[in-house]
Amino acid sequence: MKRHLTILGAAVALVAASSMAEAAVRGYATTDVNMRSGPSTAYPAVTVIPEGEPLRINGCLRDVNWCDVSWVGGRGWAYGRYVQADYRSRRVYVEPDYYPRLGIPTVTFDVDTYWDRHYRDRNFYHERDRWGRYDWRHDRHLPRG
Question: Where is the SH3b domain (predicted)?
C-alpha cells in the first residue's frame, strides 16, 4: 500500500511539473534588458538578454509588472515593458491586463526560495539576508528588525 502511494505521489508530481512547463509562454526581449535576481532594478543583474531574443515567461507578478523569465539556461526577472508575447498574430507588451489572455500564470516572489533554487553559485548569493529585507513592492529596504 505504501509503495502504491509513493508511486501515485510521484506520478502526480510529474504531471504537475509538466503542466507548469507547458504553462510557460514564449516571449521576446524588446531591447537589451537586464535579467535581474528579483523584481526590481535594485536587485543584482544576472545577465543581459539581447534585443529580439526569444525567452520563456514562467509567470508574472499580479500587481507589479515584473515577470519570472528563463533565457539560455538562466532564470531571473525582467520588467514587463521590455518583454512582448504573441497575441492574435501580433506582439503585445506583457502587462497585467494581458496575463490571462496570454496564458501567463500569476506567480509570487520570495527571495530565499528563489535564490536557493537559482543562485547558490552566484557571487551575490551571500547577500541573501540583505535582499530578504528588501521591499520590492515599494522599492525600498526595510529597517532591521
Answer: 32-84
Cα separation values, 19 from 15, 16, 86, 89, 120, Å: 6, 5, 20, 24, 26
Give 18-48 pLDDT, tens digit per residue: 334 446 899 999 999 999 999 999 999 999 9
Distance, in Å, from the CA atom of 63 to the CA atom of 23, rounded to the nearest integer, reads: 19
What does the alpha-carbon distance between residue 34 and residue 50 come to, in Å, rounded to a whole number? 9
Q: What's the pTM? A: 0.79
Domains of the chain: 2-141 (2.30.30.40)
List all residues 6 or more positions away from 118 whose beta carbon is below 8 Å from its beta carbon.
37, 75, 76
Closest CA to 107 of 66, 55, 56: 66
- Do 32 and 50 form a contact (C-beta atoms < 8 A)? yes
